[in-house]
Structure formats: C-alpha cells, structure tokens
Specification:
339 residues, 80% helix, single chain, transmembrane transporter activity, mainly alpha, MFS_dom, transmembrane
Length: 339
C-alpha cells in the first residue's frame, strides 16, 4: 500500500512537464492523482481489518480508536514536517522523505504483521460453498453482507450521522475565507486545532468511555450531542463560536464512526468462507462512505452555502440527528420489550 502513497507524492514532479505541454496531459495528471488518492483512502480500512482480526471483541472499539489516533498523529506531524522540509530544503524534499518512510513501512509490515491474521477457530466448520459468488467486488456478496441482521440499519446510521458534518468540512476551505474572513495560514491553524481534538477523542476518550458504557448508549449519546452541534452551527457567527462547537462536533463525529465500525464488525460472523473475512469485508464497505461523501458533498454543500448560508448545514444536521435519536430510542424500547 505504501508505494502507492509515494507514487502519488512523486507524481507532481513526474507529470508537471506533461501537464505543461498539453491540456490532455493535465487531464491525465489529474486522473492519475485521483486514482492514487482513491487507493490511499483504503490504507485506513486495511489497517482496521488487521486490528479487527487481532483484537478481542470486547476491546475492538478502543483499538479502532487508538488506530485513528495514530493516523491522525501522522497526518498532523507529516503536514508540519512537510512544510518545514519544503521551505528549508526545497519543494521536492518531502516527496523523497515520504518515499523513504513508505518503504520503511513496507518492511515493517512484512516483518511484523503475520500473513494470516484471522483466527481459524472462530470459523464455522461447515457452510455451503459460496466461494464462486463471494468476493470483495461481488454485488451478490455486498447484498448478502448488508442483509445480515442489524448490518443495514447500522451502516445507514454511519452514512447519515457523518454526512452533514462531512459536507460542512468539505466546504470549510471556502467558509473559512468567505464567512470567517481568515487567510490561508489561519485556516491551517484552525484545521490543526480540529485535528488535535480528534487525537484526544480517538486516543483517550473512546477507550475510557467504551470500557464503562455500552456501545448503544454511547451511540445514542453522540447523536444527542450532534443535535446540539447542529443548533450551534445555526447560531455560529465567528471563529470563536466554531472553536467551541468543534469540541462536541469532533466528539460526535469520532465516537459515532468508531462505535458503528465496532458494531458492524461484531454483527457479522468472523469468516464464512475459506477466502474472505466478513469483518474485513464490512470494514471495506465502511471505507467507501468517506469517498462517497467527498463525491457528492461539494455539489450539495455548494448549493446549501450559496442559497442558504452556513446555518443550512446546522439545519440539516439537526434534522438527521433527531431522526437517528428517535430511531435509537425506539430500538432500545423494542429490545427491552423483547427481554
């Protein structure tokens, strides 16, 4: 996986002459960068699959949160180090450092991670032969995974809970300049603040809370807080307001993401064929949520911001969060009646 990241980092230097020669070269360059970025989006999903296989079920949410901490720390550190190297030693220096770091990651992966991470004793001993129809790219396999009890509702909750804040963050570069009146440097500092909050929530709060409360309770709590975040976005007028709102915003975003991932990996069997792992497959499906949001988010976010302004993002968040709160409360009532 790492060489793909290096390839995308080096591609500006490789393709800059091509893009300068002809418009077709520019289009080719952008398609190449987009393809590399698409593959990079799967790095976290692959790491989540390994962590899911290697950790006990009761520790899975905490482990996934710590994994998010590591990725977030790498992004913040890499951004700062990349800026320093580019300004001190030249614009292409970070790409060569990234190439060396990614090659080192390849060596660590080959040495440290076992070739087979799935626990064979958890696999059912007898199941129908579905090896011909199952697979990561099989629509039949996708439909079958989503038809497993409790998978589709939780997956839809994952998509809907992060969508309003997702489109807001996609439009944040525009909002920070047009609405907050910030320059590029100040916008970067604000995003660093947002990233630090993510590190704290995923690295510490997720593990502490999951050890004391049930996942259903934490998911309901995150949706209730999300309602308050929506109202805060409606009333937001400046940078200070956003800094206050960012704390519960990051909490609900990270908590809902980690908890839904954990619930989904527990809802499916560890493995039902000799070739695929259901938790790994479902995490791969979950990884498609963020690219999906980035695909349709700019269109929806641009329309909302142009016609209704920043409060529109808060209104959408309040509506969706209230629907999810009602659903979760109703689901808990039904579960108590069954008991």
């Amino acid at each position: 996986m790492s060489p793909v990241c290096s390839c995308s980092l080096l591609s500006p230097r490789i393709w800059q002459r091509v893009s300068a020669w002809t418009p077709l070269g520019l289009v080719t360059c952008r398609l190449f960068l987009g393809f590399c970025s698409l593959l990079e989006d799967q790095f976290l999903a692959g790491a989540q699959m390994v962590v899911t296989d290697l950790t006990p079920v009761e520790e899975r949410a905490s482990a996934l949160g710590k994994l998010g901490l590591c990725f977030g720390l790498g992004i913040i550190t890499g951004s700062s180090l990349g800026g320093f190297l580019a300004s001190r030693f030249g614009i292409y220096t970070p790409t060569w450092v990234a190439l060396a770091a990614n090659l080192l990651c390849c060596v660590i992966v080959m040495v440290s991670i076992p070739a087979e991470t799935k626990r064979r004793q958890d696999r059912p001993s007898a199941r129908p032969d579905t090896s011909e129809s199952s697979g990561v790219f099989s629509l039949t396999e996708l439909k079958r995974l989503l038809s497993i009890p409790n998978v589709m509702p939780v997956f839809m909750m994952k998509v809907l809970s992060g969508f309003p804040i997702g489109i807001f963050m996609i439009m944040f570069s525009v909002i920070s300049v047009d609405f907050f009146g910030l320059n590029a440097a100040s916008s970067g500092y604000l995003m660093s603040y947002f990233g630090i909050l993510q590190l704290v929530v995923q690295g510490f709060l997720v593990g502490i809370l999951t050890s004391r409360y049930s996942e259903q309770t934490l998911l309901l709590l995150s949706m209730i807080i999300s309602v308050g975040v929506g109202f805060g976005m409606i009333l937001m007028t400046g940078v200070f307001d956003f800094c206050l709102i960012a704390i519960p915003m990051v909490f609900t975003l990270c908590m809902a993401g980690v908890i839904t991932d954990s619930i989904l990996t527990k809802a499916v069997p560890p493995s039902d064929t000799g070739q695929s792992s259901c938790p790994g497959a479902i995490l791969g499906i979950c990884a498609s949520v963020q690219p999906f949001t980035r695909t349709i988010g700019p269109t929806i976010g641009g329309y909302l911001y142009k016609h209704y302004g920043v409060p529109s993002f808060g209104c959408v968040n309040v509506i969706i969060s209230l629907i999810l709160v009602i659903y979760l409360l109703r689901d808990q009532v039904n579960q108590r009646k069954k008991k």
